[in-house]
Amino acid sequence: MFESVRTAVKAQLQNKVNVNEAELLSSLLPESYSLAQICDELVTDEDQLESLLILSGCFDEFERLQREDNDEESSIKLSLWVSKAIVPGGDCVSENEAFEDKPSSSRNEALRLAQRKGTLGLKSLQVLCRLNDSVPDTRVLLSVLAFTSQKDPWTTSESASIAQQFFSLPSIQRYTSNPEFIPQKLLQEFTRPLFSASKPESITTAGRKAMPSTAPPKRHDFVNEKKSQPWRYEVPYSIAVLEWAVQNASDEIILTSWPLIIPPLLTLLDTPTTPLLVRGLNLTTTFLPRLSTKPQLLTQTGLFSVFEEAILPTTLYLPSITPLEDSLLILPAAYSALFALYTARFQPTPHPSPAKTETETEMGTVKATINRSSKAIAETEQHQRLHFLDRVFRRGILPAASHTSSSSHSSAITIVLLAHVSPIVEKLGMHAVKHLKSIIPMLAQAFCVPRYDLIQQALRTLQVVILNCWARIGEEAWRIEVVRMLVVCKETVHVFQLGREDVRMARLWESMAVVGRLLVRAVEGRVDMREELRPLVEADAEVGEVFGI
User: Where is this region: Disordered (predicted)?
Assistant: First the structure.
């Protein structure tokens, strides 16, 4: 029935002739056909792209489709075939993710084929889903989930949009909202077996922290790497499925199914390949705050330290060992994941109400005891919170700043570092004063570089530092250093002829004025800044503009 159509489609694909496929198929398709006939002719493991093109053409000419009593059976058979035909395989793994690099032309051809098959197949699955009232097989849903993330090279904006529309269908939403779908079908039956062989040694199979081992570390088995990582080399779309599951799971499902999510997450964090590592960090940032309703979970299971030790090393993926473009992807994702870990573990604790004066009674004594206990717990929690932020700064910021200080790529990396110093200082509050001896030199160096975005970020960070460390900034040594930095910043703009007429430079002058005036207000009542800055203002009137005096 479809022989002539298949012949024409095959010729068009082989010759790569630029013709209107819709018109070609419309002119060659039979006047009528049924789902059963389509199944008999098209369901084959060979020439899948041709079959998908013809199937899509058949559904485009929907008025020619003849309905029959056995349509449901044919629809199920077609759906399963389409789902099998479109799922991307290991040949779509990009060059820097593959164990053995394939020729670029071969890999690119595999990706083009996967993109084309995916778009055609998803359109057909949408039609088949509307034709069949029964819920699609899980294999069909998994094949659609494979195209839900545009981070995957086989997913185009069109296929991602179709996949989103598919999961918006009422019948699909009813099924996927079932409390058993995500934890059982996706996490337990699909992702867990794929990631089980490559689970990090830092956790148990139940997703908890493993006991420290005295055995020597295992040597990496490069030969069997492919076998131990089927999620990466055989079923690369498993990451998209995991992302969709985490993003669409309810809080209740997250709190009950976390042992199924954490091993794959830590596996991704242990992967040195940049695209996979960044996706792992971003997914960690999405997942961890969902545990914030049970902050004790991370400490009781030992997972807080496991995540900390998994994320912190990623802040050292720096040039020149790591390409600059990769570092600029990894570092922001790493810091976001660390802040997500902070949010999940440390919740704002209300200050315990003071004990009542009538503590002579038995009830009053009990309340006083509870109050003292609550205060002790709050103090311990506060100590742990501050200690974590100190570790993030000392192990996640300072080494990177020191490493890049003499690098030709230092400006781009420093912008990222300073952008994440600000939230650390805000969370530490007045306790950030202990880090002034490290932060101020970073800022001073940034103000010497004639780069707009670097200076602007340094001014934002300095503003945060003054707001939170104003008590110490008011001391003579730090106060003079901040004044010096702002004067250097002003001179940097002038020396490199970055005049005020430029809109961006005008913004810099505004930012300098905000920070300068903030410093004056911070030390107000202790120091007469007008008198202290008089010699500078007399030498350069613009200094007065910066500080508003």
Answer: 202-222
